[in-house]
């Protein structure tokens, strides 16, 4: 597909450099019943050898340390889930319709393409940028981004024991 300038999508990293038109996809995060004030944006941008993921979120719940066998609230597990469906469903177990982790190469948890770093809240605000070579921005169009109540342990199978789902966002193509 060509864009307005007649340039093929995808980056050409040689010469001339202006022919680079990175593919970009994005998701708007909306909190569910467990975090109704949560709003956020995730941007997936093609960069040399992979994808840069930028996320900015407001309205995360206040941190609560672990107590007994109750997991802490925050830092927040953050993943790609396989189904692009952000229906709330059961209000006590929201966003189950998004399915499990997106795991196209059948890896153990901790190495799923959709395993992301946790989000650290700063009075409800979090921002982070990281790099992954496990997918391109187009690969994740139609998947869902989920923020969880509790941290991912990158160990429990299949999903890291990150607890309930606070927010969901459907990934769409930007360019
Ligand atoms: Cu998840």
Automatic annotation (TrEMBL):
Oxidoreductase as a keyword of this entry, yes or no, is yes
Q: What is its EC number?
A: 1.15.1.1
| Catalytic activity reported | 2 superoxide + 2 H(+) = H2O2 + O2
Q: Which UniProt keywords apply?
A: Copper, Metal-binding, Oxidoreductase, Zinc
List each copy of the Superoxide dismutase copper/zinc binding domain by range: 39-171
Q: Does the keyword Oxidoreductase apply?
A: yes
Q: Give the Gene Ontology MF terms in alphabetical order.
A: copper ion binding; superoxide dismutase activity
Instruction: Write down the superkingdom of origin.
Output: Bacteria
What binding details are noted for the cofactor? Answer: Binds 1 zinc ion per subunit. Binds 1 copper ion per subunit.
Q: Which family does it belong to?
A: Belongs to the Cu-Zn superoxide dismutase family.
Q: What is this protein called?
A: Superoxide dismutase [Cu-Zn]
What is the native source organism of this protein?
Answer: Bacillus salacetis
Taxonomic path: Bacteria, Bacillati, Bacillota, Bacilli, Bacillales
